[in-house]
Specification:
Order of helices and strands: EEEHHEEH
Largest sheet: 5 strands, antiparallel
Structural class: alpha+beta
Distance between the termini: 99 Å
Strand order of the largest sheet: 1-2-3-5-4
Shape: rod-shaped
Radius of gyration: 27 Å
Oligomer: single chain
Length: 163
Amino acid sequence: MSTPTIPTSQTEEPSAPADNAHALSLVSVLATGLPAELGTPHEPAHYTVPAVFSRRVTREERARIEDPATASGLAEATGLDHGLQLTVSDRRLLIKGTNLAELADGLATALGDMLARLDQDLHSEHDERVAAGEAVRTAERQRFDAVSQAAAKIRFGTTQATT
C-alpha cells in the first residue's frame, strides 16, 4: 500500500533544474505524518511537516540543511518569527515549527530555492576542489619534469684525458 502525499504545489515548477536529474529537491508533503488534529478545533498552530526528498541526502547536504543558520535564513526570508527547524530523517525533511499555511504562503518555495542554491554551492565547491587538485598535479608534474631534466644533464666521467 502506498503512502498518500500532498504535492508541495500544484502550479510550481520543480526546484531542480531539468538538466540535473540528481539535484536534491522536495517532491511532496507526507500527509500521514501530519498531526491527526489538523482540521479540528484542537489543531496546533505550529507542528512538524514531513516532506519527501527526491533522493537520499548526502552528508554534506545534510550538514548544510540542518545548520541552524539555514532555518534562520528561511524564517527571515519568509517573515516567520518562531522556531523553524530543519531535520533530515532518511529521505524526509522534517520541517519543525511550521504549518501547511506557512508552506503554502512561501516557505515551500523558499525551501526549494534553498535546496537549489545548496546544490549549486556544493557543485561549485566540488569544481573548485577538482581544479585545485589538478593545479597541484600539474605543478607536481612540472616539478618532476624539471628535476628529471636536471638529473639527465648529469654526466659521470673523469677529468683526466684519455690518450
